[in-house]
Amino acid sequence: MGISHLGPNGHNSPTVRSIGGSLNSVLRNQVFDELATTCGEWLRGNGPESDIVISSRIRLARNLADFPFIRRCSDEDRLSIERTVRARMEKLEDWADVRYVDVDELSEVDRQFLVERQLISRELAETDGSRAVAIDPNEQFSVMINEEDHLRIQVMQSGLNLQTAWQKINQLDDLLEGSITYAFHKQFGYLTACPTNVGTGVRVSAMLHLPALLATQQIDKVFRSLQKISVTVRGLFGEGSQNTGDFYQVSNQITLGKTEDDLIQQVSEVVPLLIDYERRARQFMVEHSEKYLHDDVARALGILSTAKKITSEETMQLLSKVRMGVNLGLIDNVSVKTINKLFIHTQPAHLQKIRGRLLGASDRNIERASYLQRHLNSDGKQDAELN
Amino acid sequence: MVRSDGNLRSYVAPIHQEASDASGNASRPGLKPAIVDTGRWTDRIRAHIFPPLFALIGDPMKCQHCEKPATFHITEVLGDNGPQVMHLCEEHAKVFLTQGASASPTASVTGALVKQLKLGAASATAETDQKECPVCGISFYEFRNSGRLGCPYDYTHFQGELEPLLTNIHDSVEHVGKRPHRVTVSADSQAELIQLRRQMEEAVELEDYEKASEIRDAIKKLEHSVDG
């Protein structure tokens, strides 16, 4: 790819960033190559309660004070906002390693890649117009520009770690606010395009893996109860997504009238309840149906390790069982970290980035099976490669 | 006598307000989930694990007349046996409130209230829909349709209309959390900037480039003073 002539840190130097055209695309590809093979914070699988809580995430919605909200922005406005924010960001201390990506210039597969990686939302990927994202190389935070609001800042932590996530995002917010004037109202707080986010503009969430609770068929009732205390539940990729892989994102519903600490507390109190129920449900399964469970899990691993073609849906379903199996000690030659990575790397765009070329749906199914085989059959050796 | 302060909230409470008196409320039908222990392990989990959860949070309530979730809780103040709370889904609530014409004095008052609501709602909506923000030009109707506001100044211009909406969504109209550290420049300059940019674009569309250029100079000047 000819990156070597840029020098060891060439991609970070201001001169490279300001050059357009082919060098920028080289830079972009480098960013994706790195991301595709590395792990990132929330996939580490070693935070608190990480057998059930995959990640904790906090998101802040902010808007610039002197522009209309996105919907009423002209193309020029959007360009101005993006340029202004980028220019201010580049001057920030300790911002040198942050990767700035023009989402507008990305191919569809690259955008999809970032969505799968939870670094941007589907909305940012799918809308038109000038928009971008600033990504931390460790994937602990990303800042979307020109999504539903001008700025959507998010911080992710592995496992249940909302307090740390809040400290980090609070600092990040202060840092950005130092050079960007936010739209703020004495009474209504931080102003957002949609009134459902006004006030604190904060969405506190935890991603949970709840296969046992799901198996009891009471999970809908549990989630309806949560709604009474203003806690909502969504699927793996946020609003409107399905519950693939038995993952559920639990988050606060209201953003106005409570402090940020209150809202974090609210979610922090609910998550342990769900963890407890999931653990009890799992324990119950082990005590009363171990043979059934063990067989179910073993078959899942068997199919994943030997199939020659497999869909994304089936993969998610089976990986969910295997993940629980690993947590319960029923499978001992695969690590949770590997499973977490497989969830992401077997997604359509990841497969194509790792393979290095675009693939149609049925080719992807073959590639997916091949990828799974490689990584499940010689777990110890391959783990080093996946780092 | 039935209270006639016209505040419908005393009669009809949204479901999340009810949550605070969830414990030990005897007039709530259908609280316990029906658990049939067929011996399957899933049923046994339900029997052993979930009752404590529902005791803590409360089973979502069902309508007294059907299986749908109850979203209206209507307190009949002048019933035969004193105040009575009824838990109804939207459909049955409508039926109950509009069947008013028949027997008791209470029924006709509720009927009148419903009429007042309906009438009030219709005329209020038509008028507020026309209202437009002077800075970005969005009308309240456009906002209602898309669910998105046009600019920060909308929160000032539509304050009266937004407050009930915010109460509905967040049960509050006042921010109590974090505030920006820097003392922000007056909101007026910022609103003016948005307005000027819009005017400049209009001028460009009408091909009045001289005017557009003048406005652009004004914008640059204002930007400098805002940024300090």
Main sheet of chain A, how many strands, which sense, barrel? 8 strands, antiparallel
| Proportion of residues in helical segments of chain B | 40-55%
Strand proportion of chain A, as a percent range, falls in: 5-15%
Largest sheet of chain B: 3 strands, antiparallel
Largest interface here, residues on each chain?
A-B, 64 and 63 residues
| Alpha-carbon distance between the two ends of chain A | 22 Å
The side-by-side strand order for the widest beta sheet of chain A comes to: 2-3-4-5-1-8-10-9
SSE string of chain A: HHEHEHHEEEHEEEHHEEHHHHHH
Radius of gyration of chain A: 21 Å
Number of strands of chain A: 10
Low-confidence runs of chain A: 1-24, 380-387
- The number of helical elements of chain A comes to 14
Describe this structure in words.
The complex is a heterodimer of chains A (387) and B (228). Chain A has helices at 14-18, 22-37, 75-90, 108-116, 122-126, 162-177, 211-215, 219-228, 260-306, 312-327, 336-345, 348-355, 361-377, 379-386; strands at 53-62, 99-102, 132-135, 141-145, 151-158, 184-185, 189-190, 202-209, 231-234, 247-252. In chain A, strands 2-3-4-5-1-8-10-9 form an 8-stranded antiparallel beta sheet, covered by helices on one side. Chain A has a two-stranded antiparallel sheet with strand order 6-7. In chain A, strand 6 and strand 7 form a beta hairpin. In chain A, helix 4 (108-116) packs across helix 12 (348-355) and helix 10 runs antiparallel to helix 11. With 387 residues, chain A is an alpha+beta fold. Chain A is built from 14 helices and 10 strands. Chain B has 228 residues and is mainly α. In chain B, helix 8 packs antiparallel against helix 9 (209-227). Chain B is elongated and about 70 Å long. Residues 1-37, 52-59 and 100-108 of chain B have low confidence and may be disordered. Chain B has helices at residues 15-18, 41-57, 90-98, 105-130, 140-146, 154-157, 159-170, 187-205, 209-227, and strands at 12-13, 72-76, 84-88. Chain B is 51% helix and 5% strand. The N and C termini of chain B lie far apart (63 Å). Chain B has 9 helices and 3 strands. Chain B has a 3-stranded antiparallel beta sheet. Chains A and B meet through helix 6, strand 6, strand 7, helix 8 and helix 9 of A and helix 2, helix 7 and helix 8 of B.
